[in-house]
Design goal:
Elements (H helix, E strand, L loop, with lengths): L1 E6 L11 H15 L3 E6 L14 H4 L6 H11 L3 E7 L6 H20 L11 E7 L7 H19 L2 E2 L10 E3 L3 E3 L7 E3 L2 H17 L2
Helix pairs in contact: 1-6, 4-5
Length: 211
């Protein structure tokens, strides 16, 4: 079994301390304890381009102008499940939007010609974890703007989004515990890691039951 975990952040200055990347590594750690392989993809390592609607992907099912997207997409098609970890931007990071829009286009063009079409990602379990700079009060807005946005795209791509529970039907969201300010222009965020660890473990258990 092979799972992918995609860190969607665009922020360069955080480097290995990116919250998205840290959450991806947590997922990999917990899955490895179950002897399940998990590859982490950091979108900052890829140069991606927006879809221009040229239609060339209809014949190849790959983007004719974006080799880095094709590398990511090939990994996704060979996986047994995927996690998307995304911060709240406006509403989601640009590179993640580019990945989703190209996967949508590849699927939609074929479905439009044949409504019985099943994509290469048909039924692929997908977990979604969002996070931002707010505490518990902000989580529902992150769900609406991040989780639900990603889930809507994945529905078109024919993936199967894994719910956490009835309320959180498009994944989970992680709050900050405390936000502090120093001389840097960016806020310093502290997290309740024991709580986060438990929530991710719970979500992974739910996720694996879908595979």
């Amino acid at each position: 079994m092979k799972i992918l975990s995609i860190s969607a952040t665009n922020i360069q200055h955080s480097q290995k301390n990116s919250m998205s990347l840290l959450l991806c590594n947590k997922i990999a750690e917990f899955l490895n304890c179950k002897e399940i392989q998990c590859e982490v993809i950091d979108l900052r390592d890829y140069t991606l381009h927006p879809c221009i609607g040229c239609g060339k992907c209809f014949s190849s099912k790959r983007c004719s102008a974006d080799s880095d997207f094709n590398k990511i997409y090939n990994k996704i098609t060979r996986s047994d499940g995927i996690f998307f970890i995304s911060p709240h931007y406006a509403p989601i990071p640009a590179k993640l939007s580019m990945v989703l829009e190209k996967m949508e286009q590849i699927t939609f063009l074929h479905w439009w010609k044949d409504n019985t079409y099943k994509s290469e990602l048909y039924g692929l379990p997908a977990g979604i974890i969002s996070h931002g700079g707010g505490s518990d009060w902000a989580l529902k807005s992150y769900k609406a703007m991040v989780n639900d946005t990603i889930a809507n795209a994945l529905d078109t791509i024919q993936c199967k989004v894994v719910p956490y529970d009835e309320e959180w039907n498009t994944g989970i969201s992680i709050p900050v515990q405390r936000v502090m300010e120093d001389s840097d222009i960016f806020p310093i965020q502290e997290y309740d890691w024991p709580m986060i660890d438990q929530k991710i473990k719970d979500y992974i258990e739910i996720f694996l039951r879908k595979i």
